[in-house]
What does this fold into?
Amino acid sequence: MTTPPTPPARGRRRAPSRMERAAGRAAALQRPRVLLALLLLLALTCVMLLDGYLRAEVGGDQRVRTGASASDVPDDVLDGGPILSFPGGQATTVSVPDKTIVLTFDDGPDPTWTPQVLEILDEYDVPGTFFLVGSMVARHPGIVRDLVEQGNEVGVHTFTHVDLSYQSQARVTREIEQTQLALAGAAGITTTLFRAPYSSETNAIDNYSWPVYESLGEDGYTSVFIDTDSDDWKRPGVSKIVEWATPEDDEGASVLFHDAGGERSQTIEALPKYIEKMKAKGYTFTTVSGVMAEQQPSADAPAGAGSAPGSAAGSAAGSEGGGLQAAHHKATGATLYEGRALIAAVAVAEWTVPALSAGLVIVGVAVMGRFAMMLVLARRHHRQRNRRRFSWGPPVTRPVSVVVPAYNEKECIEATLRSLARSTHPIEIVVVDDGSTDGTAEIAESLGLPGVRVVRQANAGKPAALNNGVRHARYDIVVMMDGDTVFEPDTVRHLVQPFADPSVGAVAGNAKVGNRRTLIGAWQHIEYVMGFNLDRRMYDLLRCMPTIPGAIGAFRREAVLEVGGMSDDTLAEDTDITIALHRAGWRVVYEEHARAWTEAPGSLGQLWSQRYRWSYGTMQALWKHRRSLTDKGPSGRFGRVGMPLVVLFQVVTPVFAPLIDVFTVYSMLFVDFRAALLAWLAVLGVQLVCAAYAFRLDREKYRYLLMMPLQQLAYRQMMYLVLIHSCVTALTGGRLRWQKLKRTGEVGNPAGTG
It folds into this structure.
C-alpha cells in the first residue's frame, strides 16, 4: 500500500491536478469540433429543405380558383388584349396584331423537352417567349442560358407554380423575387414579363387575382395572357394541337404551348407542323416585347421594376439591345451575386440529395441485414450456451483477482466493494486509487472488508490504473470492472468459467443499466439490451468480439502481459486490448449469465461525453489495428471478419442511420405524408421485434419498449451528432484523457433495478 498524499495547507487553494488540467484543455479543443458537427447537420438540413422547396412548397398548395366574381375588374381589361400593363398606374391592354403570333411556352425549363423546343425554334428562325418556373430555372440553369443566348424572351411564372390568388402578399413577393434571383444566377438577366400559373384569357381575371396583377403592374411588370390555347397538355393528338393553336380569320394571337410539366412528345411533333402552317398562311412570329414595341413605338420598357419591393428586375437602364429582348435587364450588384449563390446552392442540393438517397438504400439494406443476422445468430448463441451438455471444461474454482480502478468514486465505491464481498467465487479485490481527491481510498479502507487491498497512485488515467492493478494481482485470472459497477453474487463465478478452455484469453460480461428509472436511463437500457448484448452474441459466434466492456470483463493475466497491457494510445482501451488479444491468437468470448449493473450517465451532457469517448476511441482502435486486415491464420480472423463488421455496423451505418429519420421528414413534407409515415412505422416495427427478442433472451421487462419510438426520434439523433463529432475529431486530430463522469451512487442493489 502506498503512502497517501499530503493534504494541502488550510487556506491555500489546491492546484488543479494533471488530469483536471488535461480535461480543461481537451474541453477547450472539443468546443469548435462540436460546433462544426452542428454546422454540418445544419448544412445538411438546409440542403434537403432547399431541394424539397424546389420540388414543392411545404404543404404543397394545389388549390386552383374557378368561378369567382369579376365585378371589381374593369370591363376594358376583361374585353381587352392578352398583354396587360400599367403605364402611369392606368391598366392598359394590348392585342397582338393581325397575322402575328406570339409563341409562348409555360412551365419550363425541362431538361428533356425544352432543348427540343429550342432546336425547332432555331431551325425555323422563330422566337419564343418562355414563362419559366423559378425552381426549374434553379435546377437547370444551363438550359436558360441557351434559351436567352438564342434570342428568346423569358418571363416569370412564379417559383413553385402556385395559384397566387390564394396567397398572401408576402408569398407573392417571395415567388417573384426568388424567380428573378434564379434568372439572374442562371443567365445574368431579370425580366419585366409575368404570367400567373393557371391563367388563361383576360376575361378569366376575377376579384381575387386582380389585386395581384395591380400590385405587380405598379412594380413595373407586364402580365401576359393568351387568346389561343393549344391544350397540348391534354395530349389530344398532333393534329388537334395544331388545329386548336390556329387563330381564326387571320387574327393575331398569343398562343400557349408547354415545354414542361409532363410528357410533351406530341407538342414536339406538333410544333414544326404548326410553324410551317402559320408561315404558309402569311403569319409572322414575334415576342411580347415585339408586340409592345409595334403598338407603342415611342414607349420605353416599363420602368421602376428595379426599385419595386416585389421585384428583383433591376434598373431599366440596364436593358440591352442585341442578344437581349426589351423585357430583359442585365442583372447587377446584389441581385447577380445572390442569384449565383442560389444556383450554386441548388447545384449542391441536386448532387447531395440523390447521393444521400443512394446512401439511404445502402444503409437500409445494411440495417435490415444486421437485424436479420443478429436475430439468427443471437438465437443460435442462446441455444448453444444454454444446452445442458454445454461446458467449457472442468469448473474453474481457483481464486481470481478483481481490479477496481477508481477516481473520485466516493458515491459508488462502497456499493461496488460490498457487492464483490458477497461473491460466491473466491476473489481478492485490488482497488487502484488514481489520485482521487474526494476520499475514495479512505472509504475503501474504512469498510474493513476481507481481501480488499487499496493501491494508491498519482493521477495517470484509467489504463495506467488497470495496468497497476494487474501488476499487483496475485492470481492468473484478472476481472476488471468500473468503480461505479455492482456485481451479483454469482457474477464472477459465471464470468470465469470460459477460462476452462485454454484458448480463451478474455471474457466479456453482460453489462446492464442500473439507473433505468429516468427517461435517459430507460433509453440506454434499451440500447444495452438490444444493441450491445445482441451484438456480442453475434460476434461471439463469429469469433470476432470487438470489445470487452470496461464495466465487466475478465482476462487471463498471461494474455494481458503478452500484448503489453492496457494502452493509453486510444480513448477506448477496452476495444484496443480486445483487438490486440485477437491478433495475438487468443479467443475472446461472451458470457451472458455474468451480469453487472452499471450507472449510466444521468444527463445529456454526461451521455454526450461518454459516447463521444466510446465512438472516437473505437475509431482510434480500428485505425491503430488496421494492419489486422492482412493478418494471416487464426489470429487474422478479426481482421477478415470483425474489422469489416465493426466498421460497417459501428461507424458507417450509425453515422448514416439517421438518414431514415431525415428522409422520413423530407418525404412527409415534400412527397407523400402517409406513405412516408407508414414506411417509418414499418422500420420501427422491425426494430421493436428485434428489441422484444433481445429483452426475451435477457429476461427483461417489456414495458421499457414503450419508450422506443421516442428513443428513435430523440436519442438516436443525439448519437448521430456524437458520431459526427467523433468523425470531425478523427479528421482534425485530437486527444483526450480518461474522462470522469459525475456519479450519484444510485446503483446499489441489483435486485431493485427492475
